[in-house]
Amino acid sequence: xxxxxxxxxxxxxxxxxxxxxxxxxxxxxxxxxxxxxxxxxxxxxxxxxxxxxxxxxxxxxxxxxxxxxxxxxxxxxxxxxxxxxxxxxxxxxxxxxxxxxxxxxxxx
Length: 108
Hints:
Layout lengths: L1 E2 L3 E2 H39 L1 E3 L2 E3 L1 H13 L5 H12 L10 H10 L1
Antiparallel strand pairs: 1-2, 3-4
């Protein structure tokens, strides 16, 4: 009897281990890449990170999270302007970097 056109049951039983091993290797590679990405993310979080040209260390990140937690009714626009003033984030022309801060608030 033929399965899937030209493949017999005997042939399928002989070669199915190859497909299973290929799937297992692929899953192991995906898991290894995921572990590497997780380790990289943890390392960056411990050292601080850079967001759109602004260096963010772990203390500033903790400050951002606490600031968000203590002002739950404030809009992102208002929070970003207050944070820029508190942290002294200004552009070369003296304007607040509130757009950068608003984006960072989404990731904090």
